[in-house]
Records
---
Amino acid sequence: MANVRFDEERCKGCELCTTACPRGIVVMAAERINSKGYHPAQVTDMARCTGCAACARICPDVVIVVER
Amino acid sequence: MEKVLMKGNEAIGEAAIQAGCRYFFGYPITPQNELPAYMARRLPQEGGVFVQAESEISAINMVYGAAGSGARVMTSSSSPGISLKQEGISYIAGAELPCVIVNIMRGGPGLGGIQPGQADYFQATKGGGHGDYHPIVLAPSTIQELADLVMEGFDLADDYRNPVMVLGDGMLGQMMEPVSFGGYQSRTPSPKDWAATGKTADREPNIINSLFIDPQELEDRVLHIYEKYEAIKEKEIQYETYHCEDAQIIIAAYGTMARVVKNVIGRAAAEGIKVGLIRPITLWPFPYDVFTDWAARDHVKAFLSVEMSMGQMVEDVRLGVNGQKPVYFYGRTGGMVPEPEAILAEIKKIAGGE
Amino acid sequence: MAIVFARPRSLTDAPFHYCPGCTHGIVHRLVAEVIDELGIQEKTIGIAPVGCAVFAYNYFDCDMHEAAHGRAPAVATGIKRVLPDRAVFTYQGDGDLASIGTAEIVHAATRGEQITTIFINNAIYGMTGGQMAPTTLPGQVTTTSPYGRDTAVAGHPVRVCEMLATLTGAAHIERVSVHDVPHIVKAKKAIKKAFTCQLEGKGFSLVEVLSTCPSNWGMTPLEALDWVRDTMIPYYPLGVMKEVG
């Protein structure tokens, strides 16, 4: 089991993480924006997360914490 | 105290080593080449480091790094190379770093010549680099004074966390005189806990920096630096007066020119003209008050600034004299040195015209 | 569950001011991870450039100097000669290193200065609004090459790694990219090798990192990653250009 946490206020909506996830479960939250005006990244289907940390590795803003 | 016969450029090097300087970064340029060569030979003997940099620009930036690491460090050059260093000196002042920069002045502008000059006075005292700052500028007149001021320069730099410029000229750099290194009494150093030596767990990072993108922060930084300058003005002005007591003409001259002027003063006295000399030793801070005070005296009728330039220090002399008496200028430039006969002729012209 | 990925200790928690998708953020983190893994935070001294990364001293949790444009290798030389047992690194962009600072980087390398340079090549001047860099590719549009870089007028881009690899004092010269996770992993290995090279006293080390500048390239962050892969790598091949012992 694995879990990723996104510090949504730090996210700049760059979408780099969405290209890295091998399961394709990282998506941008279309329905909300953070205080900087960006759509933050998120994982809604956490059960499919393997904790590989690929998303965290490509994130330029240290938004993501990965637990396994 | 033991005296050694030394060439000026080499005496600078030995004085720096005696003052605890173990790092020198420089580049060849006439007429100061004996200094880097001396440091290249002596520093390894003292466990120090000499690097010939790829340019004067690189050298001043190596100085920045070494100074920020807490070391006593020096660089030297001559006029065109000092021009190259101006950005780096501005950064050093803005980052509040200590160092000693030696300028063995030559003829200018441009590539100029290799004979002595004093035409870098404006550059040294009015900034040179961009922004609000001043290096402390020391102008020795003999090789002994050169050695003493280099040693004092390191103390001043450390005390005030500011660059210090030792302003010599090609004559001083090349000539040889007896000098001893035991005479200068060093000040007690304060610890450099601001230096970037590696952030240990017990403190926050030390950042050596002159960038303050918030204008209020930058203003605060500059105001703080200028508080230091007020203290320097109060405590560190140095000058010499010579035969001013009943002088009708007072000459202002610094460095090697002051020695020529002292020679002329004797000859003028023999011809019945009383001439005195005010020799600024700190060019920044300049001894304005000394000129103001002497200008107020009735026996003083005029001032004459004698320089190896088209007239640079004369502007500060005028500021000091403050309109009380006329201020004249005599100089030669391009590497030509004013001759005693010519200076005497100027004195007679001034004395005759009153 | 245990945390397997988080902010490295050698990074402060100041949010980066970089544009969305700018790979400066990735590279800063990789450098900080390497500093953590090598256990050298207390003896690391970094030198920040003039460029977008001018505020790098706010992001690395170690002692730092802010250097004049291009002069970081000279500042690093001064530091390393005074403090030879510290880990000294410069972080520089393509204007800083390959334009105004060409003399400084070449001579630090040829002197074999025991320092590590992280060179960010994004083929443009970012901070000042997108001017042509010495690394700008032929035909690339920038504010000072509005019709595309014309090699007849502006010459060809410079390959820094290949150039420095000719110098005997250079001990480890490598070019990497950060356009996808496998390359990011390789980039981190290269950075670690470079720092290790310094710690082992082997000589000058430099890692050139092909990076994005979505804002000035006029692309989305994702398009920018592809541009590195498809257009930059063919001109700037990845790999180790020089490796000593």
---
Amino acid sequence: MDQKELRDWEAKCIQEEPPACRAGCPLSVDARAFALAMAKGDMDAARTILEKSMPLAAITARLCEAPCEQFCIRKDLGGAINLGLLERLCIRETQPKGKILRLPARPKKVAVLGSGPSSLAVAFDLAKKGYPVSVYHLEPAPGAWLRALPDAVLPAEILDEELRRLTALHVTFTAVPALDAALIAAHPADAVYVGQDDTIAPDLLAGLGSPDTLTFALDRPGWFTGGMGLTDHPYRFITAMSHGREAAVSMDRFLQGASLTSSRVALRHGSTALFTQTRDIAPLARVTPADAAGYTRPVALEEAGRCIDCQCLECVRHCVYLKENGGYPKSYARRVFNNSAIVQGARQANKFINSCSLCGQCETLCPNDFSMADMCLDARQQMVREKRMPPSAHWFALEEMRAAGSDQAALARHASGMVASAALFFPGCQLSGIRPAQTLRLYDRLLELDPQTGIWLDCCAAPAHWSGRAEEFAELAKKLETTWTDMGGPKVVTACSTCLKMFREHLPQLGAVSVWTVLAEEPVPAAAAHPALALSDPCTSRHDERTRKDVRTLLENMGQALAALPMSGELTECCGFGGLMDNANPALARKVAAARVAQSDADFLTYCAMCRDQLAKTGKPVLHILDLLFPEIAHPASEPPASISLRRVNRRMLKTAVLERYGQDGMPRQPWEDVRLQISESVAAVLEERRILEDDLRQVIFSCKENGRCFVHGDDGRRIASAELGEVTFWVEYREERDVFTVLKAWSHRMRIAGGRI
Amino acid sequence: MSLVFLPEDMNWSCEPCGVPLEPGKVELAYLGQVFHVELPVCPKCGAAFVYEELAQGRIFEVEQLLEDK
């Protein structure tokens, strides 16, 4: 990812866009944060938020007409949050946050003619920046129409106190009999603001002209004006403050010799790209104050509590992975960028990048189609290209893939007695490993429908793709294409959604279809015998509406009722295996599966073998659709998942079983396959967690028996043997009794032992 | 930092050498980095013993650190 790509990714995520209330505030007050602080009863924090954006907050918060309320997302759900009254209560109940900081003094001088709200805003903003500001006001005191307000609205002592704060910021007030043109000649300044929300003499007004609507600059360089035409304005006060704020920005730029318009963000007038889902938000009526004095504290808390805390987070709410990492896609894009940009030290986001299931739910949910899958897959491919992909992250899945595609397990044959295939059944390596007998039964059913159906046992190479190994994936795809061509190029029928997706995206010439589509067109012999089941679509079927529909047709034909599962169809969720999440971050994969099965009390049903076993790891009863189609060889819903060792053995056995149908011998047994192991349940669980195969242990023990090298315990004769098998060194502690090896412990490491000496 | 790693139970002998393991110097390597540590070693043939706690603990941590470098 380079800087431009980072910016492109960041621009897609709208979570940092302002909420509508803030976008609708001419002073950009963070009204959402204010309301949330008020709802918590933390009025001091709420005041700090107001003071951060408001000039002279004690006046502004009392007079603000809250134009934000017209944009509040709550508006149609019980009424907008009464931010105006909340501001008043907050400012009444709290004290100012102490001295206002002023930047170091600057030499250029500012003159402000008038002392209405816009003029006071100019004085406040520029004084804070270090400019000496002279405010000229009509006799007797500054404040213009603010002076005429009743005490209940703006007490005179509050106005005076705020003016004293301006004085402390080096603002000087000079009373004059008229705000006229003569003042300028008498008091030259580097920049002048004329506040038309005060009584300006006609001679001065006549010569001003109209200001620029964005910058409030007049034609005469260094002259600015605002506050005009507001007397009958519904947001008279806050608009005047906004004019002053915008003019002050321009004056500061002018005094520094900068462009008045460059990189300037225009007022949003409520416009924001932030999306807020309101579907599940119940209407809640606005809380009305008991009397004209406004809210009391408890009532204000209740009203503030109606704030729905507008956020997008559409993707984060539904994805355990996105939630677990504490951010949102925009912040994650920065994390991914920083991970590749780092020169020295540890790369903090490798695991993060490798943990995404690439399931694509975020992209479907996102109003802007932000795809974490695309971002993480790009990052993985870059890591592989730059030879910095952690070797252990995807090691086991790649080993599985290579084993499934090896001579030991792979095969492609026309149907027995046939010389060509009209269709080629590709069950997928996980179904073959997890449900070998059902795989053969399914093949037999396809043969009944079309005797010219061949069989193709292999892996679709998804793990190479998911792990970012583009070169290896391209080679494997080429190999698959060659096999398919050698078989005469028949239609490929697959029982795995992942294989189907991989073929359609990378080998479209295979014309792959789902086996469930083929079966849905035919009569179904089985009748369903289960209560309503929650059907969990595999994440790789998200954009395959046809297959999802055909699965439902098939179930309907069997009379199988379905229980509601909220995140289904194109919004479906991953089981924790997709994108090799389970390899890079097994703990997260467990959480993902747990969150998925918690979405329904009903037993689960799926049509992906890996989904079945991943979800079943939680203890939830989960059926595979083949359990319904072929009840005579159904596995119980409560059956624990097949172990990694069993899956490996099953694939070999399946190939042997297929070969036997052709009257051929199975694959020759490796000599180590005859090592007889005894493994307790607890040790088996450790092997599973550490991804150590029984085959690995057989090879280690076999090589120990061959070369006679091991360690023996002095007390009880326990033995420890080790062997380097590929990238990993495996160790096993065992007892041997009458040619049976009882495994006591097993462990492994990737570090190489280069030899030892005393 | 101590780079001596010995299991609690050192009552292991090398087969076929037939001699008890003793603390000895071993070179471990991963991703181009080499570490010199002290492990149980056969004084006769030099075979080194990476015991379970060491493999699952410190060695695993270092492997992960190196992979993220």
